[in-house]
Give the backbone structure.
Amino acid sequence: MPAVSKGDGMRGLAVFISDIRNCKSKEAEIKRINKELANIRSKFKGDKALDGYSKKKYVCKLLFIFLLGHDIDFGHMEAVNLLSSNKYTEKQIGYLFISVLVNSNSDLISLINNAIKNDLSSRNPTFMNLALHCIANVGSREMAEAFAAEVPRILVAGDTMDSVKQSAALCLLRLNRTSPDLVLMGEWTTRVVHLLNDQHLGVVTAATSLITTLAQKSPEDFKTSVSLAVARLSRIVSSASTDLQDYTYYFVAAPWLSVKLLRLLQCYPPPEDGAIRGRLTECLETILNKAQEPPKSKKVQHSNAKNAVLFEAISLIIHHDSEPTLLVRACNQLGQFLQHRETNLRYLALESMCTLASSEFSHEAVKTHIETVINALKSERDVSVRQRAVDLLYAMCDRSNAKQIVAEMLSYLETADYSIREEIVLKVAILAEKYAVDYTWYVDTILNLIRFAGDYVSDEVWYRVIQIVINRDEVQGYAAKTVFEALQAPACHENLVKVGGYILGEFGNLIAGDSRSSPLIQFDLLHSKFHLCSVPTRALLLSAYIKFINLFPEVKGTIQEVLRSDSQLRNADVELQQRAVEYLRLSCIASTDILATVLEEMPPFPERESSILAKLKRKKGPGNLHPDLDENRKERSVNGGTVATSPTPSTDLLGLGSTIATQNSAPPASKGASLLVDVFSENISAFPVETPVAVGPVADENFSRDILYTGGLLVGIQSWESIPYIKPKNTDMRYLPLAPFPSRFVCKNNGVLYENQLLQIGLKSEFRQNLGRMYVFFGNKTSTQFMNFAASVVCQDTLQAHILYYKLLYPTVDGGAQLQQILNIECVSDFVDAPVLNIQFRYGGTLQNIAVKLPITLNKFFQPTEMTSQDFFQRWKQLGAPQQEVQNIFKAKHSMDTEVTKAKIMGFGAALLDGVDPNPSNFVGAGVIHTKTTQVGCLLRLEPNIQAQMYRLTLRTSRDTVSQRLCDLLSEQF
Amino acid sequence: MIKAILIFNNHGKPRLSKFYEHYNEDTEQQIIRETFHLVSKRDENVCNFLEGGMLIGGSENRLIYRHYATLYFVFCVDSSESELGILDLIQVFVETLDKCFENVCELDLIFHVDKVHNILAEMVMGGMVLETNMNEIIIQVDAQNKMEKSETFIFQSPRQDR
C-alpha cells in the first residue's frame, strides 16, 4: 500500500494549486495569488475561530505560495498556535511552516521555544522528534540558549527511543555549529562516545557525525572514540557482524556509517596503540581488496556505495600519510579509476590524486599516470572533469615533467572553456617560472600564453615576465629577439605590445646589430601598433620611445617628430599629453650624458614572492594547490597532526637612518618611481646627475598602476637649484619635545597629525602588503614665509620600517601655503618604534624645531583575510602555543558602541568576520601582516563586557613579537 | 554539511526548496535560479558533481545532482560530505518518494509539498543526514500517516472546502 494515498489531500489546496497551474500568464498567477492571500488573511483575522483542519489547509497554501517565490508576511502567529495543538497533523504543519519560513531572528522565537519545551518534555517520541527537528532547522541562538543543556540529557538518557536519540544527536550537532560556546562538554561526552557501540545503526551514524564535529573542537575529550570507531568499522567491513539490520544498501554493508567512521578517524593522527593501528590497517586493506572483487550487482548504486567507502578510505590513508604501501596501493586504485567508464569516478579519482601528489611517498607513483591525465584533459566531455585534470597536472608537476605538462596545458588552452582559462594561464605561468631551467623556455612559454589567451593574461603575469627578464642578463637578448619576432604578427594581443614595448625599450640595442631588426625597423614595428592600443599601453610605448632615443641616437629625429605631432602633444588624455610634452622636451634639451643617466637600464627588481602565485592563492583560497610538497602538507594537518610553524628570530634588516643627506648619495634601491627630473627648469646644470635614476614604464608591480595612470612618472619641480639643504645643526633630536601621534591614527590613514600656532601637518597614506606611501602636507598657518624649511625622517636603529624615497624640495613655504612630501615605506620586518619626522624652519628670524612620530605602525601592513567559521577555529587552534597568544583585559576608555568598534577593527586592517564567533556581541578578525621577509597570519578576538565596561582582547599570530605589538596597538583604541 | 536541497523541473520551476543556512527570500530564489542555470546546461551522462554557484559559496561548496525524467534533485554540500554518499542519498530519497506515492511524478510533489517535506525531514535534519535506511524512513512516514488518518476522520466534515 502506498504510504500516501493520492486522494486524501486537502481539496481546497488542490483546487488552488490547479488554478495556479492553469494560469496563462505571470500576471494572472500573481492576481490569483493575491486573491488567495487576501482570502487567507481575512480568514485568519475573522471573528470565527478556525478549526485545526482549516488552519492546516491555509498554512499549506501559504507554503505553496512561498515556494513560488512570493513573500509571506503573515500567518506566523497562526503557525505558532498550531504548535500547541494536541493533534499531530496540526502540530506537524505548524512546525513545518516554522522551519521553512521563520528565520533565526524572528521575534516569535520565545513563543516557539515555549511550545518546543512542552513537546520535549511530553515523552511522546513523535512530538519530541518534531521539536528537535525544529531546533535543528532554525538553530538560532535563542534556541541554543534555551536547549543546549536539555538536548544532551535527552541524547544520553537510558529510556530515550532510538529515533529520538538520532534526532537529539543531530540537533546537538547543529547547536554546536551555530553556537559552539553554549554547547559545553560535560559528563555526557563519554556517554556520547559510547553511542558508537549502540545496537541501532541509525543512532551510531548520527552519533558519529556529532562526534566528528565535537572532536574538531576538543580532540582530547573524544580521543577514546578512535578505538571504538576502528572496532565498529572493522566489524562492518569484515562482515563479521550480523547486526546490520537493514543498513545493507545494494549489497554493501552500512556504507554511510563506514564513510562517517572514516571521516571521524581523519580528525586524529594514526592511532598510537599498535593493536588498534594494525586493526585499522587491516580494515583499509580489506576495503582496497574489495574494490578488486567482481561486483555483486550490476546496478550503479552498488558500485557507488562501494566506492564511496573506498574513496573515504583513501582519504584517510592520505591523511595519515604514514604507510607507504597503502599510499601506493591507493594511488594504483585511483589510477584504475582514471580510466573507468563512470565519469563520477574519474572526477573523484582526479581530485583525490591531487592530494596524493603532495605526499612524498606517493608523488612518484602519481607521476606514472601523467599520460592518462593528459588524455583526460584532451578527451573528457565534461568541463568539471577537465578542470580537475588541470589541477592534478599542476599538482604532479616537478622538474622532470614540467616541460611536458606546460606544453600540454598550453595546447589545451587554445580550446579550453572560457570559465577556466584565467586559472590555467596563472598555473602555466607559475610552473614555467618555478621549473625553468633555461629562461629562454620561460620567455617562450609566457609569450605563447599571451598569444593563445591574451585576454586572460592578467597584469601580474606580464609584470612578472618583465621582472625576470630584467633580473637575468642571460635571457635579455633572447627576449628582445623573441618579442620582436612575435610583434611581426599582423594582429597581436595588446599584452604582447606591452611586453614588447618594455623589452625593446630596455634591450632593443641587443638585437639592433642585425639589419632585419635595425633601430628604425624596431621603432616602426612598435609604432604600427600604437594606434590600436589603449591609453595605458600607449603611455608605456611613449616611454619606450624616449628610451629608444637614448639607445639609438639615429632615430631621435623620427621619434621627436612623432612626439611633436598634434595627436600626441594635444592628446585629449592628460597622461599621454604630459608624457609627450615632457619626453619631447627632455630629448631636446638634455645632453647625451644626462639622457644616458636618466634613461638608464632599469635596475634589478628586488626578489619577492611571485605576484602570480599570490593571485592564484586568492583565486583558489588559501591552502589549495600549491605545488610545493611541504606547504601542502602543512595545510592538511588537523588535531594532533604535525607542524606548528615555529617563530624564527626576526632577521632585522636595515634600520637605515634615512635623512635628506641620502639624497646625494645613491638611494638604496633606486626604483623607477624615484625620478625627479626638472625638464622645465632654466637651470639645467643643477641637475643632480650623480643620482642614478631611471625612467621605466613599470616601476614595480605594486606601484606600476600609479605610474601608468597617475602621471607620477615625471614630476616637474620649479626650483631645483635652491636645494641647498641645511643640515640641522643641533641634530641631537633627543632633546626635542617629541610629539607622539594621536592614537586614532592606528586605525585611520588620513587626518591632521600635528598642529601648533605656526604649522599644521596633515597626512594621507595608503598601504598595500608590505609597502606604503605617505603624503605629508605642511601647511603654513601664518601670513609670513617660512624660510629654510627642511624635513627629514629618522628611523631609529631598532626600526625596520624603511623609508625608501621621499622628496621635499621647497626651502620656503609662503604664508598660508601648503607643501607636500611623499614617503615610500617598506616594512622589512616587524617593528615597534615609529619613525620620527623632524622639521626645521626659520620663522621671523627664529629657528623652529619640531619632531613628531609618524603614525606608521605594524598594523598598517595588514591585509584582511575573509574566512569561514570552520577555517577560523582550525587556525585558531593551530596557533595555540602559549607564546603565540597575547591577551589583554582592560577598561573601556570610550563608549562601547558596536558600530564604532567594528569600524575600528576594520580600520585596524583586519577583516571583520561576521557570524564566526558564536557570541554575536564579540568581534572576530583575521588578516595577514606583510613584511618583506615574511608574512604573519593574525587572528584576533575582542570580547566586550558591557556591564563591567571592560574588554578582553586576544591576539594569536605565528610570531610572539607581532602578537604583542598588535595587542598593544589595538588595546589603545577602545 | 548539506547547505540546501533543491528540486526543480526541467524549466526551472521550483518544486521543493529547503535551506539549512539562512538566506533571505530573494537570495533563496536567486540561488534556485542560479543552480538551475548551472545544472540544466550540462549534458546527460556527464559527472554528477560540480562547483557551487557564487551565491551559495562558490568552489567551497559542491552541487551534487541527479536528473530524473522531468525533475532535477540538487544537494548543495560542503567539503565534509562524501560525494558518492550524497548521490546515494538522493537515490534513497527518490526511491522513498516512489514507495510513498507509488510511481512518484512531478504532480505528486506539487500537490503534496507538505508530505515531501515530511519525508525529507526523516532523512535530513538541520543539514545532517539523519537516516539512510529506507525501511526505517517508510515506517516513520507510515506511522505519521496513520495518525493523520485517524485525526482527519474525526475532523473533516463534508462541506464546501475552499
Remarks:
- Residues 155-162 of chain B have pLDDT under 50 and may be disordered.
- Chain B touches chain A through 74 residues (CB under 8 Å).
- The helical segments of chain B are 25-40, 83-101, 106-111, 113-123, 134-155.
- Residues 1-154 of chain B form a domain with the Beta-Lactamase fold (CATH 3.30.450.60).
